[in-house]
Amino acid sequence: MSAILTVVGLGSGNPDRLTLGIVNKLRTASKVYVRTKEHPVMQALEELGVESQSFDTLYESFSSFPKVYEAITQKLLEEVRSGDENTEIVYAVPGHPMVAESAVSKLRLLCAEEGIRLDILGGESFLDEAFVRLGFDPIEGFQLLDASGITRSQLRPELHTLIGQVYDTFTASEAKLCLMELYPPEYEVTVGHALGVEGEERIVKVPLYELDRQEGYGNLSLIYIPADRSESLRNRTFDRLHEIVGILRSPEGCPWDREQTHDTLRKNLIEETYEVLETIDEDDPEHMKEELGDLLLQIMLHSQMEEELGTFTVFDVIEGLSGKLIFRHPHVFGNKDAQDAEAALQNWEGMKAEEKRRKGIKPEAESALSGVPRDLPALMKAYKLQKKASKVGFDWDNIQDVLGKIGEELDELKEAIEAGAPAEEQMLELGDLLFAATNAARFIDADPEEALTRTNRKFVERFQYIERRLQDKGISPKDSSLEEMEALWQEAKQREYKKSAKDN
Fold it and tell me: For the chain, first and last CA: distance in Å?
């Protein structure tokens, strides 16, 4: 039989709040360990004759708190295993043993696995003092977060929020950076030190950006952000967006939004996608932010329609995407390697095939051209079809063969035009020429959609230059001759060349 392990809480720091039971347990224990002697009640315990060993030196020996807590856990288990049923090892922690004590959580699991008796005696938590000293009722909505591991997704401004484990300026800085992803820099927050400890308590209110400029952080420090249900903060949360879209589609919402269906919004989704692409081409982050929001609205509306039917919600969409990203990146979330982008893409394709197998689909039984969306723009679709065909060996040997094919298709188009062939036949010959030109894009490693987009942009810039120059003369293009416009076109080209040479 092993010894008994008892974990006790030393409370928030006021010796008067220690229970008689905990004091007696500390005085009669075979051996007492404390997580840290940097706690206000330690002097009182020493005066009562309680001898103890602390784990303070471990904080200097290890580079992270998890490693410290792991070392504490193993040391205590070694002590317990070496004792007998008449031995009681007491581990004393600040506050309450079940509040922000990682080592205690580990001990509960390991003691249960080994059949070791573990008793836990609660002490006054720092939460008890926080509720009193900071003056809020947790039933209004409350969350407790760890400063060393806080993330943006945990922040919920409508809840009273306490951030514990603010040991030093570094953890305060980490907490500040996370909070500033949601709250404005000048937002007022409260810093509390040694709450309830006479002579040591200090409560200060500071703007968020000054959070890590304060002094006095230590084992008994915390940050408090009062519940804030203002629209300005809620509007930065995904839950609020989901709520707004639901309201728009509700009977009390917007008549236009209520009437929309997947089919009526189909063109909007396409248009918003291209508007985002335009902001990317223009390298305009502010405009991109707005257009990405418009695109996100389309996703939210389509998801809301299905939520109303009970088929899925936007959160199911997010769950599916998260699962897919994790599954298709085994080199990030699993045990595979990918030294470059090409290897990462191969992993992605391999996991896509595995997904199909798990759904009962045999990738090897599918057409080599499967997976290309039916409604892609024609140029983009041609490019993807050719790439898929090339993977199974259906491809030209070199770029010269492709250029020869382009010439062949151009000749056939000329013949159809000169022979006065029906318009349908001429259009098909034009399609063959465009398809052949798309093949050339693959061989020079260029996206044909991007290539044509750049040419379109170049055309717009040159033509608008012609318009401006003609306007300077008091005329418009329709009042000008083709020769004059061609001369201005060449002038625009020369300006581009000079600018390019200067930039390079």
Answer: 79
Please report the pLDDT score of residue 246 as a whole number: 97
pTM for the model: 0.65
Q: Which two tokens stand for residue 118?
A: 């573990």
With beta carbons less than 8 A apart as the criterion, state whether 276 and 291 touch: yes
pLDDT given at position 365: 64
By the 8 A CB rule, do 268 and 304 touch? no
Given the structure tokens 């188009």, which residue do they identify?
A: 413
Contact 112, 27 (CB under 8 A): no
Of 61, 62, 79, 211, the C-alpha closest to 150 is 211
Amino acid present at 286: E
Q: What is the pLDDT of residues 23-51, one digit of tens each?
A: 999 999 999 999 999 888 899 999 889 99
Question: How far apart, in whole angstroms, are the C-alpha atoms of residue 414 and residue 429?
Answer: 9
Under DSSP, the state recorded for 398 is S
Q: Residue 217 has what pLDDT?
A: 94
- Mean pLDDT score, 135-156: 92
For 57-70, b/e burial (b = at least 16 CB within 10 A) is ebbeeeeebeebbb
Neighbours of 106 (CB within 10 A): 18
DSSP collapsed to 3 states, 201-266? CEEEEEEHHHHHHCCCCCCCEEEEECCCCCHHHHCCCHHHHHHHHHHHHCCCCCHHHHHCCCCCCH
pLDDT of residue 8 exceeding 70, the answer is yes
Quote the CA–CA distance of 173 and 150 in Å, as a whole number: 11
Q: Determine the average pLDDT of the residues in 270-299.
A: 93
pLDDT of residue 179: 95
| Whole-number Å distance between alpha carbons of 229 and 345 | 44
Token output for 146? 């760890």
How far is the C-alpha of 467 from the C-alpha of 473, rounded, in Å? 10
